[in-house]
C-alpha cells in the first residue's frame, strides 16, 4: 500500500516558483535522470506529449531551467539560476525541448528524456509529474521502473549466465523487505532494487569488478526523505479512531504520523517543519517589497494594499483583508521565481503563508505553535494525497488552491486549540465551496486568476473555521468531500485543466496579454 509523507510533498518541497508540477518536478526528474550519467551530459532531448498540459506551459513555468539544473546537479537556489541556459552553452551542452505525439503518454504531465553522449550508450527515460512536486520515473530504456526519489535504488542489467553469482551477492546485503522488480528481454535480464538504506559499498565494489560486457548498473540516491515506517492512518475515519484512544490536536497527530513514517525523532520533524515555516513567512515579507517583484503579467500590488490598510483607507480593513494581501505578497514571490514552499503546490503557495503570518503577528503564536498549525494543515493535504491528487492537470484548481484553503482551515482550528473533528469539518466546508473550480491560468502563468484566488481562499479559512467553532454542523464528511472533489475535477474538459486554453485564459484580453509575452 502507498505510504505518503507530509514533509516530502504536502508541506513541501521548498522550491523555486512558480509551479510544483512544472518547475519543481522538472528539477527532481532532471536530478534523478542525471544520476544515470553521473550528471555528465552532452546532448539531451526533452519531449512532451503534443497538446498536453506540460507542452502548453513549460516555457512559462520555468520547466526548462528546472530540467537543466537537475540534469547537471546545479543548486537551483543560487542567484544565477536564470543564467543556466548561457552556462550550458559555454560547456557545449545541448538541451532541446520539443512536443510531439507520444503513444506512451498516460498522463498530462508525461515527459520523455533522451540522453546522448560520447562517454555512455544512449539512454531514454520516461517520467511523469504527478502533482505537488511528486514525480515518477516509469521506464529506463526498455525496462519498466518505479522510481519516485523516496528510496535508494540499484538498477542492474545482466546476462543470464551472471544470474547465480549476482543473486548470491545480492542476498548477502538486502533484506526481505527491500523491493525487487525483475524483468527479462531477449538475452538481457534486469532488476530494480528499492531499499530504505544506502546501497552497500561492498556490493558496489563487486559490481564494478564484474565484466562490464555482462553487467551494467546504476545507483540512484533519494531526493527527499526516505520513507521507513508505516502510516498511522490514511483517511479521516482511521484518524478519528486514533483520537478516540488518545485525544490530541491535529497538529500533534501530524507530528506523530511523520515521525513514525520517516523513522526519526519528534525533534527532527519539528526542525524540518520550522525550516518550511521560515520560508513561508519570508515569502510574505519579501513579497511586500516592490523592488523584488519580477512578475510577467501582473504589476506588484501587495505593498500598495498594505499601505492603504495601514492608513485605514480601505472600506472593511479587517483581518480578512490583511490575510488576503499577505497571500498576494507570497504569490508575488512565487511568480517572480523566488524561493517558496509548496503547500500543497506552487500555484497555491500564497494561502498557508498568509494564514500563518496572521497567526504569528495578530494572534502572537510562537514558533512551536505555528509548526503544529502547519502540521495540522499537512494532515488534511495528506488525507487528500491518499484519495485524490494535487495536480490541476488532472482535476482543476480545486485540488490545488481549493485544497490549500481546506488545509488553512485546519491550521486556524489548531491555533484555536480545538479538536481534530472540527479541523476535518472546517476543511470539508471550505472544499465544498471551491469544488468545481477550473484551472484557467492566463498564458500558462500562475498569476491570473491564481493570485486573487489564493487571496480569497486564505481569507475564507478564518470564516470557515469560525463557522465550525460557532456550531455549524457539517453533514458531509471530509473523505466523501475529497472523493466528490476529485470526481467533479475529472469531469472538466482538458481546456479547463491547466492548459491555458479555456475559461478566463480564452478571453480576448487574455489572448492579447499572451501575445505581448510571446514577443
UniProtKB/TrEMBL annotation:
Q: Which UniProt keywords apply?
A: 4Fe-4S, Gluconeogenesis, Iron, Iron-sulfur, Lyase, Metal-binding
Biological process according to GO = gluconeogenesis
Q: Which cofactor does it need?
A: [4Fe-4S] cluster
Q: In which pathway does it act?
A: Carbohydrate biosynthesis; gluconeogenesis
Molecular function GO labels: 4 iron, 4 sulfur cluster binding; L-serine ammonia-lyase activity; metal ion binding
- Give the enzyme class: lyase
The protein's matches in InterPro entries, at most eight in alphabetical order, are given as: Fe-S_L-Ser, Ser_deHydtase-like_asu
The chain positions of domain Serine dehydratase-like alpha subunit read 257-505
Entry annotated with the keyword Iron: yes
The parts of the chain that form a coiled coil are none
E.C. number: 4.3.1.17
Under what name is this protein listed? Answer: L-serine ammonia-lyase, iron-sulfur-dependent, subunit alpha
High-level lineage: Archaea, Promethearchaeati, Promethearchaeota, Promethearchaeia, Promethearchaeales
Amino acid at each position: 500500500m502507498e505510504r505518503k509523507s507530509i514533509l516530502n510533498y504536502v508541506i513541501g518541497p521548498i522550491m523555486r516558483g512558480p509551479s510544483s508540477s512544472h518547475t519543481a518536478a522538472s528539477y527532481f526528474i532532471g536530478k534523478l535522470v542525471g544520476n544515470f550519467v553521473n550528471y555528465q551530459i552532452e546532448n539531451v532531448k526533452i519531449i512532451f506529449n503534443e497538446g498536453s498540459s506540460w507542452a502548453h506551459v513549460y516555457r512559462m513555468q520555468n520547466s526548462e531551467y528546472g530540467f537543466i539544473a537537475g540534469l547537471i546537479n546545479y543548486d537551483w537556489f543560487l542567484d544565477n539560476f536564470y543564467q543556466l541556459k548561457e552556462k550550458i552553452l559555454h560547456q557545449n551542452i545541448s538541451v532541446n525541448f520539443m512536443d510531439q505525439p507520444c503513444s506512451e503518454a498516460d498522463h498530462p504531465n508525461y515527459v520523455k528524456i533522451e540522453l546522448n553522449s560520447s562517454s555512455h550508450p544512449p539512454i531514454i527515460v520516461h517520467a511523469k509529474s504527478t502533482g505537488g512536486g511528486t514525480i515518477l520515473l516509469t521506464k529506463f530504456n526498455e525496462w519498466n521502473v518505479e522510481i519516485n526519489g523516496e528510496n535508494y535504488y540499484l538498477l542492474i542489467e545482466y546476462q543470464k549466465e551472471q544470474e547465480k553469482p549476482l543473486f548470491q551477492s545480492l542476498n548477502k546485503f538486502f533484506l526481505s523487505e527491500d523491493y525487487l522488480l525483475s524483468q527479462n528481454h531477449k538475452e538481457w535480464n534486469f532488476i530494480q532494487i528499492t531499499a530504505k538504506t544506502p546501497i552497500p559499498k561492498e556490493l558496489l565494489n563487486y559490481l564494478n569488478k564484474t565484466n562490464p560486457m555482462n553487467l551494467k548498473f546504476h545507483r540512484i540516491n533519494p531526493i527527499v526523505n526516505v520513507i521507513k515506517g508505516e502510516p498511522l492512518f490514511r483517511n479521516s475515519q482511521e484518524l478519528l479512531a486514533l483520537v478516540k484512544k488518545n485525544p490530541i490536536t491535529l497538529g500533534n497527530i501530524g507530528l506523530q504520523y511523520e515521525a513514525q513514517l520517516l523513522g526519526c525523532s519528534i525533534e527532527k520533524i519539528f526542525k524540518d517543519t520550522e525550516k518550511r515555516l521560515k520560508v513561508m513567512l519570508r515569502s510574505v515579507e519579501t513579497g511586500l517589497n516592490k523592488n523584488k517583484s519580477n512578475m510577467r503579467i501582473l504589476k506588484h500590488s501587495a505593498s500598495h494594499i498594505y499601505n492603504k490598510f495601514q492608513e485605514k483607507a480601505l472600506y472593511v480593513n479587517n483581518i480578512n483583508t490583511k490575510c488576503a494581501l499577505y497571500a498576494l505578497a507570497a504569490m508575488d514571490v512565487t511568480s517572480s521565481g523566488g524561493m517558496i514552499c509548496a503547500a500543497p503546490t506552487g500555484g497555491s503557495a500564497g494561502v498557508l503563508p498568509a494564514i500563518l503570518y496572521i497567526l504569528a503577528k495578530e494572534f502572537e503564536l510562537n514558533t512551536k505553535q505555528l509548526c503544529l498549525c502547519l502540521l495540522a494543515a499537512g494532515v488534511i493535504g495528506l488525507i487528500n494525497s491518499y484519495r485524490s491528487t494535487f495536480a490541476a492537470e488532472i482535476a482543476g484548481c480545486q485540488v490545488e488552491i481549493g485544497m490549500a484553503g481546506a488545509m488553512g482551515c485546519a491550521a486556524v482550528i489548531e491555533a484555536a486549540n480545538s479538536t481534530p473533528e472540527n479541523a476535518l469539518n472546517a476543511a470539508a466546508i471550505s472544499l465544498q465551496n471551491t469544488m468545481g473550480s477550473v484551472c484557467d491560468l492566463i498564458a500558462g502563468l500562475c498569476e491570473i486568476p491564481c493570485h486573487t484566488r489564493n487571496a480569497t481562499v486564505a481569507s475564507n479559512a478564518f470564516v470557515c473555521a469560525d463557522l465550525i467553532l460557532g456550531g455549524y454542523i457539517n453533514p458531509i464528511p471530509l473523505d466523501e468531500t475529497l472523493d466528490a472533489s476529485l470526481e467533479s475535477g475529472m469531469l472538466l474538459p482538458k481546456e479547463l485543466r491547466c492548459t491555458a486554453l479555456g475559461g478566463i485564459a480564452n478571453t480576448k484580453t487574455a489572448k492579447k496579454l499572451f501575445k505581448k509575452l510571446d514577443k
